[in-house]
Design goal:
By secondary structure, the chain is an all-alpha fold. The protein contains two helices and no strands. Helix 1 packs antiparallel against helix 2. The longest helix has 50 residues. The N and C termini lie far apart (108 Å).
Length: 96
C-alpha cells in the first residue's frame, strides 16, 4: 500500500456555478413575474375561446334564420318574421 504522500486525488468534476443570493433573488423575481404573465395569458386565451364559441353559435343561429326567412311559402316566412320581430321587441322594451 502506498504511503499518504503518494496518493494523488484529481477532481475531474466540471466547475460548479457560484450563484450569489442577489442573483438568485433577481432570477426568482423574474421567474415569478413570467409565471404570473403566463397565467394571465392562459386566462385571456380561455376568455377568447369562449367568445369565439359564442360568435360561432350566433353565426349558426343567423344562418338558420336567414334560411327560414328565404325559403318556403310566403305565409311561413311572414310568421317567422313576426316571431323574430316580437322576440327583438321583448329584448329591447324601450325600442319602438
Amino acid at each position: 500500500m502506498p504511503g499518504d504522500g503518494e496518493i494523488v486525488v484529481r477532481d475531474r468534476r466540471r466547475p460548479a456555478w457560484e450563484w450569489t443570493t442577489e442573483l438568485e433573488e433577481r432570477e426568482r423575481e423574474e421567474l415569478d413575474a413570467l409565471r404570473a404573465e403566463r397565467d394571465e395569458l392562459r386566462a385571456r386565451i380561455d376568455e377568447l375561446h369562449v367568445a369565439a364559441q359564442q360568435a360561432h353559435d350566433r353565426e349558426q343561429a343567423l344562418r338558420r334564420l336567414v334560411l327560414e326567412l328565404s325559403t318556403g311559402p310566403w305565409w311561413t316566412r311572414l310568421a317567422v318574421a313576426r316571431r323574430v320581430r316580437a322576440a327583438a321587441q321583448r329584448r329591447r322594451p324601450n325600442a319602438k
